Every structure is written in structure tokens, then in C-alpha cells.
């Protein structure tokens, strides 16, 4: 069983990356059906995120527990709609001790070739940084796309470790897109009249992030960890 926590889940794009391509929803609650759709194709996404086969290439993985955290209720409603389009069905666990009304649970059985994968997805309307005393679902891996620059590195790392590390001493953090480095248009876009060049525009954008209190880069995270 692999447990993943997605902080600031947005539209569940990291869910696609964790799964990797080629999975089809074939049933729910253990009842196998005819393949209905692929996870990548259900909403018109081709699933190409530039990565490899996902975290579930390990043939030993047979169960994925995915906990997605989001502070925007409208965004979370979009996540629920997307899961339904993928073929997931709402699910209530009679043994679940969490009575939080701000949690929605979904379940499906996925297949890729001869492999079957039980997947549970829980959508939490919760700001993990403000619920340090209420432990979230356990996780082996914590992911957060376009998240790390929003917090001071020491605050982010300490909050994540406080929330998740007690149950997972070997916790893995995956925080892509920290707005570090440089961005350029391809092909380059030189200045044209009153329109600045791509280099000037991206430089101004980076300066605006820093002025707004963002923390781009990975060096601070490495030191804090």
C-alpha cells in the first residue's frame, strides 16, 4: 500500500503524475467491469507531463491511498467532478473515524495490462499549515506542485515533518516547480515596440514573486530539510 499526500492539489495534476500513463478504470469496490476510459483521456488530457511512468511502476504496488488537500472549495469541487469523469465513485468507509464533513472519498479499481490497482482518493478541504494539531492521513510521499515558493523554507519543512513524519520516518518530499532558475521562450521573443522581450518579462515576473514574499529556489529547502 502506497500512501500519497498532495498539498495544494489544484486540479489533481499530480495525481496523473503519480499514476503514470496507461491505467484504465475497470470497476469499483472490487467489481471488475469492462474498461471505461483511461485516467489521462477522461478530461482530454493526454497525460504527457514530461515525466516517466509514474510512481507506480513497481509491480508490488497494489493499493494507492491518495489524500488531496486544497483550501479552495471551488477547486475541490472541480477535483470531485474530475474523479467522477474518470469513473471513480463516492465511497464511505464505515470504519473511518474521521467525522470531518470537509472530506470527500472516492474509490476505483484501475488496470494496466495484467496489473490491478485499488485506488482510494480523499479530498480534504483543509489548509495543512493551519491544522498542525489535527493529523492528516498518513503518507509515505508528500507532493506539492507550485507550493514550495509560497512558504519560508523552514516553516514549510517543519510543518510537513510535524504533520507527516511521526507516522513515516522515511518520508519522501516531492515539490516540483519552485520557480527556480530561468525561463525563456522558444524561439526567443525579442522586444517589439512597447512589448518587452521574453527575458525582460520573465525577469520582471521573478522579481515580482520575490517582492510579493515568495521563496523561489531549492537551496533554502535543502538547508531546512
Explained architecture:
Helix content is 24%, strand content 22%. The protein has 225 residues and is an alpha/beta fold. Strands 1, 2, 3, 4, 5, 6, 7, 8 and 9 form a 9-stranded mixed sheet that branches. About 5% of the residues have low confidence.
Task: Note the topology.
Blueprint: E1 2-7, H1 13-19, E2 24-28, E3 31-32, E4 63-70, H2 73-86, E5 89-90, E6 103-112, E7 115-125, E8 141-143, H3 153-164, E9 172-174, H4 198-211, H5 219-224
Parallel strand pairs: 1-4, 1-8, 4-7, 8-9
Antiparallel strand pairs: 2-3, 2-6, 5-6, 6-7
Care to give the gist of this entry?
With 225 residues, the chain is α/β, with parallel strands linked by helices. 24% of the residues lie in helices and 22% in strands.
**How large is the count of helical segments?**
5
Low-confidence region ranges: 32-36, 46-51
Largest sheet: number of strands, sense, barrel closure: 9 strands, mixed
Structural class: alpha/beta
User: What's the order of the H and E elements?
Assistant: EHEEEHEEEEHEHH
Rounded mean pLDDT score:
80
Strand content: 15-25%
By DSSP, the count of extended strands is 9
Distance between the termini: 26 Å
What proportion of the residues is helical, as a percent range?
Answer: 10-25%
Shape: globular
- Overall radius of gyration: 19 Å
Amino acid at each position: 500500500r502506497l500512501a500519497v499526500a498532495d498539498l495544494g492539489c489544484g486540479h489533481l495534476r499530480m495525481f496523473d503524475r503519480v499514476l503514470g500513463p496507461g491505467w484504465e478504470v475497470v470497476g469499483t469496490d472490487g467489481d471488475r467491469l469492462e474498461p471505461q476510459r483511461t485516467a489521462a483521456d477522461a478530461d482530454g488530457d493526454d497525460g504527457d507531463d514530461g515525466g516517466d511512468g509514474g510512481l507506480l511502476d513497481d509491480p508490488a504496488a497494489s493499493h494507492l491511498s491518495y489524500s488531496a488537500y486544497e483550501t479552495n472549495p471551488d477547486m475541490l469541487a472541480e477535483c470531485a467532478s474530475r474523479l467522477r469523469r474518470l469513473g471513480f465513485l463516492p465511497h464511505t468507509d464505515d470504519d473511518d473515524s474521521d467525522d470531518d464533513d470537509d472530506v470527500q472519498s472516492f474509490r476505483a479499481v484501475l488496470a494496466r495490462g495484467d496489473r490491478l490497482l485499488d485506488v482510494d482518493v480523499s479530498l480534504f478541504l483543509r489548509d495543512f499549515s493551519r491544522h498542525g494539531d489535527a493529523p492528516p492521513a498518513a503518507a509515505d510521499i508528500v507532493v506539492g506542485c507550485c507550493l514550495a515558493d509560497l512558504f519560508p523554507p523552514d516553516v514549510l519543512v517543519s510543518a510537513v515533518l510535524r504533520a507527516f513524519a511521526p507516522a513515516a520516518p522515511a518520508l519522501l518530499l516531492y515539490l516540483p516547480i519552485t520557480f527556480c532558475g530561468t525561463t525563456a521562450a522558444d524561439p526567443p521573443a525579442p522586444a517589439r515596440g512597447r512589448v518587452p522581450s521574453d527575458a525582460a518579462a520573465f525577469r520582471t515576473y521573478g522579481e515580482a514573486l520575490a517582492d510579493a514574499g515568495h521563496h523561489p529556489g531549492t537551496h533554502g529547502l535543502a538547508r531546512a530539510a
